[in-house]
Design goal:
The chain is α+β, with helices and mostly antiparallel strands. It has 22 helices and 28 strands. It has 3 domains: 188 residues, no CATH class; 375 residues, Alkaline Phosphatase, subunit A (3-Layer(aba) Sandwich); 148 residues, Jelly Rolls. Helix 16 links the parallel strand 6 and strand 7. The longest helix is centred in the N-terminal third of the chain and has 25 residues.
């Protein structure tokens, strides 16, 4: 008790230990984590100095909580950035009081940075021990004029950001305390500005330039294309910067040549250097490519999932359109299909056959948790193409690799040649896809097939401008001589469906957006992208705009979207910035039309063979309910029913988890009883959403010897009406506020 009744006022120990915790550790950890940036160091110094002045000479009772929060903020930022590449948000703070989240995040090797955790714990201990002294000793005081130092640092940070904006990641420019403070201040300013400007967020805005189908350009060749088939090769996470012709086209300062062989194919193809990816995540990229519409420009429910509730718009996607024209349509990926509900989405948009890891009979070269390594995958895909070529019917085949997804698949020989597993996996993919294209050419496939090579998303490159939004598109076609080597202009995934239909001179549904890669346009076009937390817009008239989490936008003079550098024109906020965000929100509602309530059914009723063990929440997930948005003020009800098709006497162990932004979150899911033959497992539970839940995922894991059938997995979110709220108040609480549970195991 003596410890906590004393003050942090020792002329040496207390001040030094506080400075260690608040200044030295944050600055050193920033350098150690590779986050060196002048803005970040100023942010650490500004907030650290301010806290040092505020806590010096304070009772340990008052100082302990801020020191703990500060330490958790530093460690939490490092952990979340390392896991999912983003900084924590205010909504994440509730997890600190969640015992399940804390225990799951710290057990075993749960912490990615245990050294940082131990260093922070040591700093806290030094601060506590530094307060143990004679209370009568003269306190070491600081003049109030010292407050000018953090004020100057933070003001300088803001002024320099205005004058010389940095394109570095948020965690390199801000520490978490500074970011949350800036967000809070900025949110207040935005509300005041909206009130003063009389903004009406519900007023429809003009987004015709983003949604329109534009086939007004001049065709690159007359008549329909000579190909009879379509092959779309989608490479996991590959940015356009990896191809030398793309780097040369924009005079990129990035010179690391990680995919030299694919770069050689790019020189033979019609290559589009200024090719924009509209967002992150595979299912979002596939939706934009195959359905001619912008994917969600935020972290809301993917439109591919929303499309499951539509029976008309799905028929306008590229596979459905080609199927209507007599093509057989096929989707083949190297991973399992259930993750992100591709087992349901792909057939829904028109693929006659949707196949995943289970289809492959050839032996994999590597044991990779996500599925087939790239070399084995393309060997299997080559066999699939041979089968398609034996049929008389024209075909469309979409391929999706998985080897360049974390934790990356590469043999030891590639690991020995590269500095990281990521680079080794990229080199392995480069050889695999180049060999695949060479085999296609040798077999004559390129003579009668339109081949498009692209990527679903970009995993980004440190210090490369716009790398997270920089995609690529290579076209190999029978009429290659009539196509330009470099396709000038700004294009993106939203253009791919219209381009393929236009190539064959087939009708293009007016609901599709974009331009055709097989036409030349005299004017520019509007295009949007949302990656790494930045909303980016090019107006087609030489102005590129980038808006950050504070709804502060920076304007640049840039002829195209993707550029190595651009001339800074200044920044703006207020009404003009809000209008950009509102236009993106309207695009996001192209399927939901702003409706709050949604019902999704993720059960496919197929036979699922269980593994003896299920260790990976992602690769072993049995259900595709990932990255949903559960709106504020709604109640979510989940119903699950599983039947054992065949099972040994021990039965199967089933576990249902929930995650938000890829981190475990407790929504009071009850434990599931063992599953046995003749005893279907049924579970129903619900929870309220007082605030919007984004990137919310369910993970169903099962382990045992046998097979199961998921009969029902429905997720219903509906607005909380006054009647529902009153009914819940009348009911006795069940395992937590706003939560209803029920488990049954029927004989």
């Amino acid at each position: 008790m003596r410890l906590f009744s004393s003050r942090l006022q020792h002329p040496g120990k207390s001040f030094i230990s506080l400075a260690l915790l608040l200044l030295l550790i944050p600055l050193a950890s920033r350098y150690w984590l590779g986050w060196s940036n002048s803005f970040g160091y100023v942010s650490d110094l500004g907030i650290g100095c301010l806290l040092l002045l505020l806590l010096h000479n304070r009772s340990l009772w008052l100082a302990l909580l801020p020191m703990l929060i500060w330490s958790v903020f530093i460690l939490g930022t490092a952990e979340l950035v390392g896991a999912v590449g983003r900084m924590p948000e205010l909504g994440d703070l509730k997890y600190l009081t969640d015992s399940q989240f804390v225990s799951h995040s710290t057990q075993g090797d749960g912490l990615s940075y245990p050294i940082l955790a131990m260093t922070l714990a040591g700093g806290l201990l030094a601060c506590l021990l530094g307060g143990r002294h004679n209370p009568q000793r003269m306190a070491f005081t600081l003049s109030r004029y010292w407050y000018a130092l953090p004020a100057m640092l933070l003001i300088g940070h803001a002024v320099n950001q205005y004058a010389n904006p940095s394109e570095a990641a948020q965690w390199k420019q801000f520490n978490l305390t500074h970011k949350l403070l800036a967000e809070t201040v900025n949110a207040g300013q935005l509300r005041i500005g909206a009130w003063l400007d009389g903004d009406s967020p519900t007023k429809p805005l003009d987004i015709a330039g983003l949604k329109q189908l534009d086939l007004s350009g001049n065709k690159l060749f007359t008549g329909p294309g000579k190909a009879r088939n379509v092959l779309i090769i989608t490479l996991e996470g590959i940015p356009g910067a990896y191809l030398a012709p793309n780097r040369a086209a924009i005079n990129s300062s990035y010179q690391q040549d990680l995919m030299p062989r694919l770069g050689q194919w790019a020189e033979r193809a019609m290559n589009t250097p200024d090719y924009v990816l509209h967002g992150h995540q595979t299912i979002r990229g596939l939706y934009a490519m195959l359905c001619g519409d912008y994917n969600k420009l935020d972290s809301g429910t993917p439109k591919g999932v929303e499309l499951l509730n539509h029976q008309v718009r799905n028929l306008q996607c590229l596979p459905a359109q080609l199927r209507e024209q007599g093509f057989s349509t096929h989707f083949l990926q190297g991973a399992g299909l259930r993750f992100m509900a591709k087992d349901k989405i792909m057939p829904h948009i028109g693929f006659g056959k949707t196949l995943g890891r289970d289809w492959f009979k050839n032996k994999a070269y590597l044991d990779f948790p996500w599925g087939m390594d790239d070399k084995a995958y393309f060997e299997g895909a080559l066999d699939y193409v041979k089968q398609l070529r034996r049929q008389k019917q024209p075909w469309m085949l979409t391929l999706l690799t998985v080897g360049t997804h974390q934790p990356y698949a590469a043999p030891q020989a590639y690991l020995d040649r590269h500095t990281s597993a990521k680079e080794a996996a990229i080199g392995y993919l480069d050889d695999a896809v180049a060999d695949f294209l060479a085999d296609l050419e040798q077999q004559g496939v390129l003579k009668d097939t339109l081949v498009i090579v692209t990527s679903d998303e970009s995993h980004g490159i440190e210090q490369v401008r716009l790398a997270s939004a920089w995609g690529f598109n290579l076209v190999l076609a029978p009429e290659q001589a009539e196509l330009p080597a470099l396709k000038h202009g700004v294009y993106g995934h939203v253009d791919l469906s219209a381009s393929v239909l236009d190539y064959f001179d087939l009708p293009v549904p007016s609901s599709l957006s974009g331009r055709s890669l097989f036409r030349d346009y005299l004017s520019g076009r509007e295009i949007l992208s949302y990656t790494n937390g930045l909303l980016r817009q090019h107006d087609g008239k030489g102005i590129f705009t980038e808006c950050d989490f504070q709804q502060v936008c920076r304007r640049y003079a840039s002829a195209g979207f993707i550029a190595d550098n651009a001339r800074y024109l200044g920044r703006f906020s207020g009404q003009a910035a809000r209008l950009i965000a509102q236009r993106a929100e309207q695009l996001d509602q192209s399927l939901s039309n702003g409706q709050v309530g949604q019902r999704y059914q993720f059960a496919s009723r197929e036979r699922i063979e269980l593994n003896p063990t299920a260790a990976n929440d992602w690769a072993d997930n049995l259900i595709g309910a990932q990255y949903l948005e559960l709106p504020k003020g709604t109640h979510t009800q989940v119903t699950l029913k599983i039947r054992a098709v065949s099972m040994d006497k021990q039965g199967a162990t089933m576990v249902l988890k929930a995650k938000e932004f890829d981190q475990d979150v407790a929504v009071l899911i009850p434990p599931l009883p063992p599953l046995r033959v003749g005893q279907p497992l049924e579970i129903s539970f619900g929870f309220d959403n007082p605030t919007t839940r984004k990137a919310f995922s369910f993970h169903l894991l099962g382990q045992g010897r046998g097979a199961i059938e998921i009969i029902d997995f429905s997720v219903l979110s509906e607005p909380m009406t006054e009647l529902m709220a009153a009914q819940k108040e009348e009911q006795p609480p069940t395992r937590g506020p706003g939560t209803s549970l029920g488990v049954q195991a029927h004989p």
